[in-house]
């Protein structure tokens, strides 16, 4: 059993059947795969913020010994920071990082994928697992770019930095049962994960959970401003709102499958203050504004996918 972050992320995170929108990996399959799961040597290509979040989760949950984790990054200061903070190996050479690694996590920026692919093509063992966190880069681009079939594409989010992330992931058919379980363990080391069986869900996840923290920050910011407008000092309003957000999230999580509207109704007395606030929100088309915002993110995600399509962006030689 993996060690978990203290409250508020305290629900058990034992590997579980993925609640995919279509099709699910069964518990039996997960259990059968458990024996086959192992990490061996783990490499991260790119040592930025998300790499730090994921590698911190891996190290603190002891999925691999720090000596079996290597991070490559072109920036010497970043390498020094990662090496000192996590006690992992570091290198400036992606080829050295990938050499002998059983799982390679691509945490570089999407625009650097073409050069990373050209460095690593043909240098990754066909048995190794490739895990991408690069936003908007299709698994087929990794498959073609690296000439590799065992590819998992993920969409994490920033709360991964406090091991409270939500990562949605898709595995290509070449990924083994043991590697599916290893992926769950990897992703659960920095939050929760949801496996989907169709890659289109990755764009939707980008719009919902990937960009999601920004929506909550915006709502929190609006509430703090409203508090100031009423007369609270800003620091007091800020503390009230942060704790209300945190407590509400924990409460919702611990309420399990209880529909969110029931939780909301429970605190909406007839003719009361909350009912008045909710009426004003409805009158201002709050739900439609939120829905339109998420749809805009989805459309933008699809457009960015096209712009990162390496094939489409190939220019004929002059
Ligand atoms: N941040 C998020 O919330 C989030 C959420 C979901 C997905 N993602 C994805 O996660 C990936 C990393 O994002 P991030 O926010 O962690 O970015 P980041 O902090 O900029 O990290 C990327 C790191 O890769 C390094 N790098 C540049 N060229 C490289 C190369 N050729 N080989 C290896 N490493 C190279 C960069 O070094 P330099 O700084 O010197 O260029 C940088 O340290 C991106 O693909 C992003 O789409 C991010």
Automatic annotation (TrEMBL):
Residues 41-136 form the Pyrroline-5-carboxylate reductase catalytic N-terminal domain. Residues 1-23 are annotated as: Disordered. It comes from the Eukaryota. SUPFAM superfamilies: 6-phosphogluconate dehydrogenase C-terminal domain-like (SSF48179), NAD(P)-binding Rossmann-fold domains (SSF51735). Residues 199-304 form the Pyrroline-5-carboxylate reductase dimerisation domain. InterPro entries: 6-PGluconate_DH-like_C_sf, NAD(P)-bd_dom_sf, P5C_Rdtase_cat_N, P5CR_dimer, Pyrroline-COOH_reductase. Signal peptide: none annotated. Belongs to the pyrroline-5-carboxylate reductase family. HAMAP family: P5C_reductase (MF_01925). This is Pyrroline-5-carboxylate reductase. It comes from Prorocentrum cordatum.
């Amino acid at each position: 059993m993996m060690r978990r972050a203290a409250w508020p992320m305290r629900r058990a995170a034992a590997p579980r059947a993925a609640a995919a929108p279509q099709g699910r990996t069964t518990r039996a399959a997960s259990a059968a795969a458990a024996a086959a799961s192992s990490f061996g040597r783990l490499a991260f290509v790119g040592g930025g913020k998300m790499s730090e979040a994921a590698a911190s989760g891996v190290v603190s949950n002891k999925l691999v010994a720090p000596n079996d984790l290597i991070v490559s990054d072109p920036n010497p200061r970043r390498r020094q920071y990662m090496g000192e903070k996590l006690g992992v190996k570091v290198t400036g050479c992606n080829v050295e990082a990938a050499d002998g690694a059983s799982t390679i996590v691509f945490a570089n920026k999407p625009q650097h994928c073409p050069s990373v692919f050209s460095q690593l093509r043909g240098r990754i063992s066909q048995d190794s697992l490739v895990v991408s966190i690069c936003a908007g880069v299709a698994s087929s681009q990794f498959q073609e770019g690296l000439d590799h079939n065992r590819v998992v594409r993920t969409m994490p989010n920033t709360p991964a930095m406090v091991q409270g992330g939500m990562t949605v992931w898709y595995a290509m058919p070449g990924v083994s049962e043991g590697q599916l379980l290893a992926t769950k363990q990897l992703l659960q080391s920095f939050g929760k994960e949801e496996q989907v069986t169709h890659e289109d869900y990755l764009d939707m996840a980008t719009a919902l959970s990937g960009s999601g923290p920004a929506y909550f920050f915006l709502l929190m910011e609006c509430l703090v401003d409203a508090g100031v407008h009423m007369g609270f000092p800003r620091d007091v309003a800020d503390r009230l709102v942060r704790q209300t957000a945190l407590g509400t999230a924990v409460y919702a999580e611990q309420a399990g499958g209880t529909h969110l509207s029931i939780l909301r109704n429970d605190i909406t007395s007839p003719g009361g203050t909350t009912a008045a606030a909710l009426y004003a929100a409805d009158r201002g088309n709050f739900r439609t504004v939120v829905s339109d915002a998420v749809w805009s993110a989805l459309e933008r995600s699809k457009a960015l996918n096209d712009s990162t399509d390496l094939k489409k962006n190939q220019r004929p030689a002059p």
